[in-house]
Design a protein that fits this description.
504 residues, alpha+beta, FAD/NAD(P)-binding domain, D-Amino Acid Oxidase, Chain A, domain 2, Glutaredoxin, eight-stranded mixed beta sheet, 14 helices
Length: 504
């Protein structure tokens, strides 16, 4: 049976797929989302996102709702095997540079339910659950043909799409069909994941606790008002079944639950996960793109796994929408992999560094950690790298006009400052390009910018936004719809003319 064709088909209705579909819908793009499951996977996986990703949540229109189901974390505490604090790095729980707390803990099923409810408000999107994709082939006129089976009645359907987004996870069918392979970055560890609910006060510091040990590294964090997460590295021969009861778990969680009786602790889940570091050798073939876990797998040590997928969706959606409506040249789609792949690789490398710092070196490693970690704040730039939630800037591309000068704004996110009327900058700029400037452009330049559908925003003297431009050695900046600075400098006329032109 032939289903209705769609401009964009998204395979996978996890956070990445739903985010991509929602963003495309905001530009009026019709999207079909296919997922093999009927609803949200009920068990928590991701539990953290930073303030940069919170901006994407805001872009989806659910920032207030997400704030109600999440809790800010205070930062990171590093512990030795004797539970001695080696170092503590503070994250600002108040609204920071991007307008939101720098570290946010949440329950993934709650977030996914929120994202799906929000998606239901978009008439441009059709979500079909119980739809198991069985094949992806070349269709007519350069389109992709997707074959899927309705798992309820066994009927087979096909649909053709101008563009196909593979958001179908680590075992991605789409990745195989485009001929991409995962490059192994030589990290594989088996970990135990424990979720416990209790109304008792554990009386613990409200940040992430990292237990650094070559024998049994671990992590502890509070997810919600009554939900807690522990993760411990499994030893050879151990399985999740060995820790299925509270008596078996007690030796692991005892440092945090000493005064709490067993009848006050409810085990929600005990599961085994294999943490891997991998990245696909290609993220695109023709009109097909890979996003999220289909393109990269990040160990959880810096809490960027799910966030990386949302960053993929934010980077690609506005470009794809612009190509579909004719406002952008199709060549801009080449910038997706060029920008996102190096960024994802840097975040994976950071996670690997943290993971190995937690687990490597045996007794010698323990001694080094006790000596070096408390002095990390003395290392130039190290404390800022740990406490600042900012991720690396995007590399040079057709939509990132970098120069060779240091401390440039290009490739970084503009701040989401509070402007007049206590509105955040993101809400004032909308979903299009913008010129942020301290110098009013000439009338002809203003007309040119507005003719490109972009917004001109004047940063008033003495404001945080004006100070940001000044620190970057600029008086104006062209900001993309994903809030990345495309170009910055002092020649306002030149910057106005740098806005992307329509395709021929």
């Amino acid at each position: 049976m032939r289903a209705k064709d769609a401009p964009v088909v998204v395979i996978g209705a996890g956070p990445t797929g739903i985010t991509a579909a929602t963003l495309l819908a905001q530009y009026g793009v019709e999207v079909l989302v296919l997922d093999r499951w009927a609803g949200v996977y009920p068990q928590p996986r991701a539990v953290h996102l930073d303030d940069e990703v919170f901006r994407i949540i805001d872009r989806l229109g659910v920032a207030e709702e997400f704030a109600k189901i999440s809790r800010p974390a205070l930062g990171l505490r590093l512990l030795d095997p004797q539970m001695t604090v080696l170092a503590q790095f503070h994250r600002d729980p108040s609204h920071a540079r991007h307008g939101y707390p720098q570290a946010n803990m949440f329950d993934q099923p709650e977030l996914e339910a929120l994202l799906r409810t929000n998606l239901e408000r978009r008439p441009e999107v059709t979500l079909r659950g119980n739809a198991e994709v069985t094949d992806v082939t070349a269709g007519e006129r350069g389109r992709s043909r997707v074959t899927y089976v309705d798992r309820l009645d066994g009927t087979e359907h096909t649909v053709e799409a101008d563009y196909l987004l593979g958001c179908d996870g680590a075992n991605s069918l789409v990745r195989r069909r485009v001929g991409a392979t995962m490059r192994d970055l030589h990290f594989e560890q088996r970990w135990l994941v424990i979720d416990i609910a209790t109304a008792a006060d554990l009386n613990q510091w409200a940040g992430v606790h990292q237990l650094c040990s070559p024998h049994r590294a671990g992590t502890f964090m509070q997810i919600g008002d009554v939900r807690y997460r522990w993760e411990f590295r499994l030893l050879p021969g151990e399985t999740a079944e060995d820790f299925s009861t509270l008596p078996a778990l007690r030796p692991l969680i005892e440092p945090w639950t000493t005064r709490i009786d067993d009848d006050q602790l409810e085990i929600l889940r005990v599961a085994e996960y294999t943490f891997r570091a991998q990245i696909a050798d290609r993220w695109r073939r023709g009109n097909t793109f890979l996003l999220g876990d289909a393109a990269h797998l990040t160990p959880p040590f810096v809490g960027q796994g799910m966030g990386a997928g949302l960053r993929d969706a934010m980077n690609l959606a506005w470009k794809l929408a612009g190509v579909l409506d004719g406002s952008l040249d199709p060549a801009v789609l080449d910038t997706y992999e060029a920008e996102r792949k190096p960024h994802a690789r840097k975040m994976i490398d950071l996670a690997l560094l943290v993971g190995r710092a937690m687990t490597a070196g045996g007794e010698v490693g323990d001694r080094l950690r006790r000596t070096l970690v408390p002095r990390m704040h003395l290392m130039p730039g190290m404390r800022n790298k740990i406490t600042d939630s900012a991720t690396p800037s995007l590399p040079r591309s057709a939509l990132v006009h970098k120069t060779y000068r240091p401390r440039q704004l290009t490739g970084t996110l503009c701040p989401n400052t509070e402007e007049e009327g206590r509105q955040r900058l993101d809400s004032l700029l909308g979903n299009a390009f913008a010129l942020i400037t301290t110098v009013a452009p000439a009338a002809a330049d203003q007309t040119y910018v507005e003719g490109r559908g972009a917004t001109v925003y004047h940063a008033q003297p003495g404001t945080e936004l004006a100070a940001w431009l000044r620190r970057g050695g600029a008086c104006a900046a062209v900001v993309r719809p994903d809030r990345t600075v495309m170009r910055a400098g002092r020649d306002v006329h030149e910057l106005c003319r740098a806005l992307p032109t329509r395709r021929p």
